[in-house]
């Protein structure tokens, strides 16, 4: 094709040979150079619709705020009537403020994007005839990819080979059950059974597929483009939005009010309109999104230093609010390295026969390969050259077992391994030490179960191993073959508790996070691990108990059960849902395919970099090292984020808001406007600049000790209490300024400009802590910016720039007055603030469990 593209059409149609020819590839994939060339032509394999508008457009979009537009329009009008200077000033101030916003936000987003790339999904492709791990975004049409259980399918492709491949297509078709896929040599099979699609995941089995189309050309890419599937907003995002809406309503009301009154009093309408608009600009927390993003990205960067990657920003506040953490056991509470230490027969004596069977099973199973399989394969290498695999019943987390059908030197053999209770229950015979097969009478069954119980008491994990001779005409294995088995013995593993986990759990509990364990493993082993780690187990329940509970019974018990054992993936999700219904903010930490749906459903989904694709994809936080200790760091960082955003909002909604309201009120009884529109805008710009340090601010330890939730009610009450304090001082200021200067607009405006800015800005030193401002040191950047803003306001009146804004030098008597007013204001705010938080601390808390 002329533009260098290879044919990218429906992966289900046509024969495989034809498709490979058209894609210019073969079963061995592409050469690296050719793949690079195709990547340049076809673009990256990404479906994300929200990806990068050019920076210029994003910058310009910031002007598309109706307030800003009306303001620019009005000042253009006033320029037309002669006031060109004020037009220039308005344009300058608007551009300065948008630039401040844009630069900060862009830098923050770049940090986050870089972090996200660091945990991007990979794909296993054939390049230059070898398997290579590449980022999934670099997969191109013609690539041959290898798929295994737990993988996300990187792009749309056609199966070249497949073994017991089951795929979850819910994201694409809504179909909740796994769909079987098989090679379709000639093409056209119903329901695309010969093809795999981006956005779906491999549940079990393995395959090789040739990629036919990538990125937005995929079925999922087109869907994502049309639906623009944005995740639902989190409680924090909703809270921020509600806060914005609350301020907006007040602003609209105030602007209409000021405009009406001024028109009613026959004042110059254009100036009145500009004044009202400038007030509105002063009122809107236009920096809020920027402050949120910058605060979050700063938190994300600090966490990156602890090797935790924040993939989804909203997770950052949720983790600060998290009251409950549900976690799996393997790798989190135990060392990730599992070792096989023994292989014993039905009496508990060492047996090579059991090892051989276990090895055969692990060696030939093609589905989910777990750490247990790795441990078996590493343990030794018996000669299996005479063995061929015929079929398998793949592993799944409901059955908790896997069986392979083998031809072992002429005899057909089904070898099963899995959770011991279940394997034993499916057995009707057992192998005695001399190899004879005996029926499993109740006494033998009890003896074999006792061996398993003994291993569990010692904290050893075990898998049951069993086999069954099959007739020679048996070519495919089915579920019902897993019956009348001959029990052989146990494969025994050591999965030692992780020393650091005990402290990590304690730290989380100290930080006010309830920790609960959900595991697919059995109760003895889990109890043992908890005992070793000193984690109290007051109540333990199993998946079987859970299955017998209705929703009400579960709701009643979920709070008290410390450990859930032998739970299936669906049950993990059920426990999670029950916790969420208690009103708690719930985190889920897991690394496996069996954890993915619970991770997805959690408020805080946490996975590890080495985890399965599906788990990583569902998570909002990725731990580069599987270590519970860093979860606490994330919790603290999340709390810090929420606290700092709250500071900004409390500032905006108390002091700044009060000032603007007072100014609107003053415009009623003063014979002139209390500030010129350009002065209001300048006041707002300086105020904004002073707040740019908030994301970097320190947060008191006391505020980080408990989960922090975004609390709009608190903000509203704070505003109602501190608003009047601020207004009281404003009106005192107006009165004193009139007394001091008489009805001189220039002096009055200059005095009020300086006073209002000083009070608005300096109050941050009180609001940023619930305790004494003297005991809590602010971050130097915040202190410097705040003091610089106040200094600028004090110096402006004596500069030519100040003169351009209409300011005049102030007499020394004013500065005395200023010190008195600001000092008095801060003192009263401090007293009121203490009383406010003391009352709140006394009120009953709403925290669950
Ligand atoms: N490869 C395997 N072959 C046979 N059985 C297995 C295999 N992997 C796991 N099982 C069985 O399935 C059970 C559940 O698996 P697993 O322990 O991975 O679940 P989990 O919920 O992830 O537990 P954890 O909290 O320990 O991570 C195991 O206890 C074991 O009995
Ligand atoms: Mg697990």
TrEMBL record:
Residues passing through the membrane, by range: 59-78, 84-103, 246-265, 277-297, 718-738, 750-769, 781-808, 814-832
Keywords for the protein's UniProt record, in alphabetical order: ATP-binding, Cell inner membrane, Cell membrane, Magnesium, Membrane, Nucleotide-binding, Phosphoprotein, Translocase, Transmembrane, Transmembrane helix
Its EC number(s): 7.2.2.14
Pfam family, one: Cation_ATPase
Membrane topology: Multi-pass membrane protein
Family to which the UniProt record says this protein belongs: Belongs to the cation transport ATPase (P-type) (TC 3.A.3) family. Type IIIB subfamily.
Protein name: Magnesium-transporting ATPase, P-type 1
Source organism phylogeny: Bacteria, Pseudomonadati, Pseudomonadota, Alphaproteobacteria, Hyphomicrobiales
């Amino acid at each position: 094709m002329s533009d260098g593209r290879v044919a990218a059409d429906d992966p289900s149609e046509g024969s495989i040979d034809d498709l490979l020819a058209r894609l210019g590839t073969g079963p061995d994939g592409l050469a690296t150079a050719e793949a690079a060339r195709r990547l340049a032509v076809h673009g990256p394999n990404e479906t994300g619709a929200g990806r990068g508008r050019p920076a210029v457009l994003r910058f310009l979009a910031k002007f598309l705020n109706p307030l800003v537009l009306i303001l620019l329009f009005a000042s253009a009008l006033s320029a037309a009537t002669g006031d060109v200077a004020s037009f220039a000033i308005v344009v300058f101030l608007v551009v300065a403020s948008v630039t401040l916003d844009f630069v900060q936000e862009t830098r923050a987003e770049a940090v986050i994007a870089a972090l996200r790339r660091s945990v991007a999904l990979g794909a296993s492709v054939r390049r230059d005839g070898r398997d290579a791990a590449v980022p999934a975004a670099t997969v191109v049409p013609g690539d041959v990819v290898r798929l295994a259980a737990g993988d996300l399918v990187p792009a749309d492709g056609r199966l070249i080979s497949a073994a017991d491949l089951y795929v979850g297509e819910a994201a694409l078709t809504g179909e909740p059950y796994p769909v079987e896929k098989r090679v379709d040599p000639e093409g056209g099979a119903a329901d695309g059974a010969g093809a795999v699609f981006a956005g779906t995941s491999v549940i079990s089995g393995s395959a090789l597929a040739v990629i036919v189309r990538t990125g937005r050309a995929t079925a999922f890419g087109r869907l994502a483009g049309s639906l623009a599937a944005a995740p639902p907003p989190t409680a924090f995002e909703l809270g921020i939005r509600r806060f914005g809406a609350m301020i907006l309503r007040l602003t609209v009301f105030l602007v209409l009010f000021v405009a009406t009154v001024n028109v009613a009093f026959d004042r110059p309408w254009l100036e009145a309109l500009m004044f009202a608009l400038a007030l509105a600009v002063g009122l809107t927390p236009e920096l809020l999104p920027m402050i949120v993003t910058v605060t979050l990205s700063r938190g994300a960067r600090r966490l990156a230093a602890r090797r935790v990657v924040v993939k989804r920003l909203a997770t950052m506040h949720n983790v600060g609010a998290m009251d409950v953490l549900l976690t799996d056991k393997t790798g989190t509470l135990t060392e990730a390295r599992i070792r096989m230490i023994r292989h014993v027969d039905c009496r508990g004596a060492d047996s090579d026969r059991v090892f051989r069977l276990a090895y055969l099973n692990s060696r030939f199973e093609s589905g989910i390969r777990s750490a247990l399989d790795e441990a078996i394969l590493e343990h030794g290498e018996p000669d299996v050259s005479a063995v061929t695999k015929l079929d398998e019943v793949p592993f799944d987390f409901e059955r908790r077992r896997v069986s392979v059908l083998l031809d072992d030197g002429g005899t057909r053999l089904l070898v099963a391994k899995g959770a011991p209770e279940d394997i034993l229950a499916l057995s009707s015979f057992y192998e005695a030490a001399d190899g004879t097969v005996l029926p499993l009478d109740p006494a033998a069954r009890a003896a074999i179960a006792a061996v398993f119980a003994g291993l569990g008491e010692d904290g050893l994990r075990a898998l049951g191993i069993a086999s069954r001779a099959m007739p020679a005409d048996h070519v495919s294995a089915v579920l019902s073959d897993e019956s009348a088995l001959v029990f052989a013995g146990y494969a025994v593993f050591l999965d030692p508790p992780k020393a650091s986990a005990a402290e990590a759990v304690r730290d989380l509990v100290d930080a006010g996070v309830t920790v609960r364990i959900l595991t697919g493993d059995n109760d003895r082993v889990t109890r043992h691990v908890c005992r070793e780690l000193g984690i109290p187990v007051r109540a333990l329940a199993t998946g079987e108990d859970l299955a017998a509970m209705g929703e009400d019974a579960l709701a009643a018990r979920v709070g008290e059960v410390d450990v859930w054992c032998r739970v299936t993936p669906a049950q993990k999700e059920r426990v999670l849902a029950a916790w969420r219904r208690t009103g708690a903010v719930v985190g889920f930490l897991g690394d496996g395919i069996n954890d993915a749906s619970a991770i997805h459903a959690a408020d805080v989904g946490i996975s590890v970099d080495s985890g399965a694709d599906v788990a990583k994809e569902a998570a909002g936080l990725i731990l580069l090292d599987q270590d519970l200790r860093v979860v606490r760091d994330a919790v603290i960082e999340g709390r810090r984020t929420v606290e700092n955003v709250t500071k900004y909002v409390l500032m905006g909604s108390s002091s700044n808001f009060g000032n603007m309201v007072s100014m609107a009120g003053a415009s009623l009884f003063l014979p002139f406007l209390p500030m010129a529109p350009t002065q209001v805008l300048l006041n707002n710009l300086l105020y904004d600049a002073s707040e740019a340090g908030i994301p970097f601010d320190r947060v008191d330890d006391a505020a980080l000790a408990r989960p922090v939730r975004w609390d709009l009610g608190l903000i509203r009450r704070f505003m109602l209490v501190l608003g009047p304090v601020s207004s009281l001082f404003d009106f005192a200021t107006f009165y004193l300024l009139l007394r001091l200067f008489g009805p001189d607009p220039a002096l009055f405006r200059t005095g009020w400009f300086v006073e209002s800015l000083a009070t608005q800005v300096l109050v941050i030193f009180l609001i940023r802590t619930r305790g004494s401002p003297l005991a809590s040191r602010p971050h130097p950047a915040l202190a410097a910016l705040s003091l610089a803003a106040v200094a600028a306001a004090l110096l402006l009146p004596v500069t030519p720039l100040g003169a351009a804004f209409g300011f005049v030098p102030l007499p020394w008597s004013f500065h005395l007055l200023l010190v008195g007013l600001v000092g008095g204001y801060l003192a009263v705010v401090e007293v009121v603030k203490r009383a406010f938080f003391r009352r709140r601390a006394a009120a009953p808390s709403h925290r669950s469990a």
